[in-house]
Amino acid sequence: MTNEYLRRVYAEVEKRDAGEPEFLQAVREVFESLELVIDKHPEGEKAGLIERFVEPERVVEFRVPWVDDSGKVRVNRGYRVQFNSAIGPYKGGLRFHPSVNLSVIKFLGFEQILKNSLTTLPMGGGKGGSDFDPKGKSDGEVMRFCQSFMTELYRHIGQFTDTPAGDIGVGAREVGYMFGQYKKIVDRFDGGVITGKGLSYGGSLARTQATGYGICYYSAEALKKLANESYEGKTVVVSGSGNVAQYCAQKVMQLGGKVVAMSDSAGYVYDPHGIDLNVLFDIKQRRRARISVYADEVPGAEYHEGCKNIWNVKCDIAHPCASQNEMDAVGAQTLVDNGCMAVFEGANMPLTPEAIEIVQKNGLLYSPGKASNAGGVATSGLEMSQNSIRMSWSFEEVDEKLHGIMVNIFNACYDASVECGKPGDLMVGANVAGFLKVAEAMMAQGVV
Q1: Where are the domains of the chain?
Q2: Fold of 210-363
Q3: CATH 3.40.50.2300: does it fit domain 58-189?
Q4: Is 308 designated active site?
Q5: Selected catalytic residue, list 91, 106, 115, 127
Q6: What is the 3-state secondary structure (H, E, C) of the chain?
């Protein structure tokens, strides 16, 4: 960073939040993209714009006591970071995973500000979750945890205040339990208070598929406009095997690509014939089993320990869809050496700064998750719209709107990259395009 204002604010953030590496990483990445914008708008410094931009409006931290099936009392920690409401009510998912801490939730909430801005929908940025791990828990244990979690969270949310959704570890089951508890406590049916709901009580068709499909809609546009290419005939690696990865892989195949490897936190499977999604969906959605089971059941498939080693698999396009910092410099260099042409993020901040540098330096197409994985929150916004007007759109209607939003996000990122003198640098474009809308709203609303 060369801009003195940004350097000074980052030094303050670094000092104040020294124990939050994920948050600091996210802030630095964004700041490095904003230098040209800040140079052109010195009025922002006088208004303390950047100082306010990096400080959450509100942070809620609370205990979540619950009783397991053996009658033992367990206690987890819950979070909700309401980061920025300049362009709309806070919007962002809830993550249930042992890795959750304040740094992770703040980085996710910070990224969500820009992601939501890029969708053009009126949604501010927020994020929440808990260090609770749903894996290995019975439905009853998950229900009791979710009810306890919502018994505190309900005080801080509402369709015009803060509307959570799902994220890692939070699917239809968890959303259902939380919405049921919210409805019981407040004694009214506020459908727009949480998204990712079941279809029988206000959910949106295509919401389940939205993040994964949206990645591919964005990436297909980038491939076409920047490389005159498509998914047709391409070999693709998709890390992860949760909701995002599953439907990213499905859309890749619909667009003519072949997904040959997927992973979970323990390791990855390689199937040279292409992943059989019917088997994968059964393993992950119905049985909730480890991905290693795939290799036991599909002839010719191989299972390898170590999820990060998935980048050793030769491919044309990589979609990291698992979690933050899953691809390091070694993984990125391996992709380059194996002739990969593009890396489009599906998770939030899955590449380390060193990995991003290697990918960009070697001329691979690259998109940050805040742009390419914005389809999930975009469709959450469409679910909120349907709840507000008491209507339900068809799968095709929602999918068409999603496709249009993702194409528009790509164009906004590309146009901003051109204006910044870095045509095709979609990371700079995403950060700048997302920031400018939020900054304009913050400046218009005064020092609040």
Answers
A1: 58-189, 210-363
A2: Rossmann fold (3.40.50)
A3: no
A4: no
A5: 127
A6: CCCHHHHHHHHHHHHHCCCCHHHHHHHHHHHHHHHHHHHHCCHHHHCCHHHHHCCCCEEEEEEEEEECCCCCEEEEEEEEEEEECCCCCEEEEEEECCCCCHHHHHHHHHHHHHHHHHCCCCCEEEEEEECCCCCCCCHHHHHHHHHHHHHHHHHHCECCCEEEEECCCCCHHHHHHHHHHHHHHHCCCCHHHCCCCCHHHCCCCCHHHHHHHHHHHHHHHHHHHHHCCCCCCCEEEEECCCHHHHHHHHHHHHCCCEEEEEECCCEEEECCCCCCHHHHHHHHHHCCCCCHHHHHHCCCCEEEECHHHHHHCCCCEEEECCCCCCECHHHHHHHHHCCCCEEECCCCCCECHHHHHHHHHCCCEEECHHHHCCHHHHHHHHHHHHHHHCCCCCHHHHHHHHHHHHHHHHHHHHHHHHHCCCCCCHHHHHHHHHHHHHHHHHHHCCCC
Tens place of pLDDT per residue across the chain (448 aa): 899 999 999 999 999 999 999 999 999 999 999 998 999 999 999 999 999 999 999 999 999 999 999 999 999 999 999 999 999 999 999 999 999 999 999 999 999 999 999 999 999 999 999 999 999 999 999 999 999 999 999 999 999 999 999 999 999 999 999 999 999 999 999 999 999 999 999 999 999 999 999 999 999 999 999 999 999 999 999 999 999 999 999 999 999 999 999 999 999 999 999 999 999 999 999 999 999 999 999 999 999 999 999 999 999 999 999 999 999 999 999 999 999 999 999 999 999 999 999 999 999 999 999 999 999 999 999 999 999 999 999 999 999 999 999 999 999 999 999 999 999 999 999 999 999 999 999 999 999 9
